[in-house]
Design a protein that fits this description.
five-stranded antiparallel beta sheet, six-stranded mixed beta sheet, globular, about 35% helix, Nucleotidyltransferase, domain 5, Dna Ligase, domain 1, 12 helices, 18 strands, about 450 residues
Length: about 450
């Protein structure tokens, strides 16, 4: 049997080949050579860079990998994006994004005192499909012990079915148009043999093997834009990671949090990304196109003012800085958008039908989560009653110190807006640890290598 988590999402605009080619050519002219001239080549294999290319900001973190598997952040950079650089979490102007990334990287590398080429980049957007598929395999030789070769075949079968489902969903959302996609993340959620849960299936006997596998697929056009961005920045792209999966990795970390159950939400400028973690396993990720900019646009339309003026009023909401005469209109606009946002969360969480109940802890991150109204709506309304919660969920912002195994040495990673970038560092570390080939390591590590993308 096959089960899959999906959510109906709206279309987003894609950049045409002609526009992309022009953007690439422009980026070469505008890209500064500070990094390549002054610092290139000084970073060793014990460093990596995480690029969180968000709708509002590009964030760059340089991490030093320690011998004990922890990471020290030694460089931080951040640059604001223009309105036309991104659309719903995906790159719309390669040239603009490359320039912003270059500035953020230069800032981070200057602080770290070295240039780093191995990079992990996050991907978001409504067309990124993160699902958990459950597949049941009836073994013909129940008395034969399961070995690595058999497990690899089972894992590949699950991934193939997940890809087929993702393609079908994207084709439906794109009006029947076939979309080329690629696997970006894969993680083992759980394994049962004849109804008995196991953490390591190798050596067990049994008739029925049930595997739960999380997979995330993204359209090739979006992956291609990120690959071109990395190329223009002279980075060695290790992996592209679905950002809600990165947030989950940030919070789950290593064995310290392997039994964590929580709902994680990254509220960015263009999208809200949700990951549901149950007993340390990522059950699935959902994304929908409402983020911080939606609230700004709502104020812009309601008051008939510019986007920048609306952003200022939105940020001033809840403080004495907001003019009293503006408050009713601003509050009304924000409230209406918050209602739609809450509905999106309900729809997304409603797709997790295979869970007996949803985790009662919610953790938010991302710049959009800085709007106090969102926390107030989640804490003060009865939106959760239509969903399988056992009690009202608690709601908190994720703090950098909660990220397992990653320490900031710069003093600049101070709040929830850097959590996704920290999670990308964790995914980068995972990738580096699993890239050493099939020889060596324990059985669990070999299983993890099968899942590496």
């Amino acid at each position: 049997m096959y089960t899959i988590e999906v959510i109906m999402l709206s279309k987003i605009k894609a950049v045409s080949k002609e526009t992309a080619a022009k953007a690439i050519a422009t980026s070469k002219d505008r890209l500064k050579d500070i990094r390549s001239k002054s610092l290139k080549g000084q970073g060793g294999e014990d460093h990596l860079v995480a690029l969180d290319i968000g709708t509002e900001y590009v964030k760059a973190l340089i991490g030093k990998i320690n011998s004990d598997g922890t990471i020290d952040i030694t460089g931080v950079g951040r640059r604001h994006q223009n309105l036309t650089d991104m659309q719903a979490g995906a790159i719309a102007d390669i040239a603009g994004v490359v320039e912003n990334c270059d500035q953020a990287l230069t800032e981070a590398e200057t602080q770290a005192g070295l240039s780093v080429r191995p990079a992990i980049i996050g991907i978001a957007g409504e067309l990124v499909k993160g699902t958990t598929m459950t597949i049941k395999v009836a073994r013909t030789e129940a008395n034969k012990s399961i070995d690595l070769e058999e497990m690899e075949k089972i894992i590949r079968l699950v991934q193939q079915h997940a890809e087929t489902k993702a393609k079908q969903q994207l084709a439906w959302e794109m009006g029947g148009k076939e979309v080329a996609i690629r696997l970006v993340n894969s993680a083992l959620v759980g394994i049962e043999i004849d109804g008995y849960p196991v953490t390591n299936p190798i050596g067990f006997q049994g008739k029925n093997v049930v595997v739960q596998l999380y997979t995330a697929f993204a359209p090739m056009i979006h992956i291609g834009a990120l690959e071109k961005t990395a190329q223009e920045l002279d980075l060695d792209l290790m992996a592209v990671a679905a950002e809600p999966f990165a947030v989950a990795r940030a919070v789950i970390g290593d064995k310290q949090n392997q039994n964590l159950s929580a709902i994680l939400m990254d509220v960015g400028g263009g999208t809200t990304d949700i990951a549901v973690v149950d007993d340390g396993g990522v059950q699935g990720t959902k994304m929908f196109g409402i983020g911080g900019r939606a609230y700004t646009h709502a104020v812009e339309r309601a008051l008939g003012i510019s986007f920048d003026q609306a952003e200022t009023l939105k940020l001033a909401y809840g403080t004495s800085q907001l003019p009293p005469q503006r408050r009713p209109a601003v509050e009304s606009a924000l409230d209406k958008t918050a209602e739609v946002w809450i509905s999106g969360i309900e729809l997304a969480l409603g797709e997790f039908t295979k869970l007996d109940h949803l985790p009662h802890r919610m953790f938010l991150c991302g710049g959009g989560a800085s709007l106090d109204l969102l926390m107030q709506r989640l804490e003060g309304s009865a939106w959760y009653k239509s969903l399988p919660f056992t009690r009202q969920p608690s709601v908190n912002l994720i703090k950098p110190e909660q990220v397992v195994g990653i320490k900031d040495t710069t003093g600049k990673v101070k709040d929830h807006t850097f959590i996704t970038a920290m999670g990308l560092l964790r995914v980068g570390l995972d990738t580096m640890q699993l890239s050493g080939g099939e020889s060596g390591g324990n059985i669990r590590e070999k299983l993890d290598r099968m899942l590496s993308v």
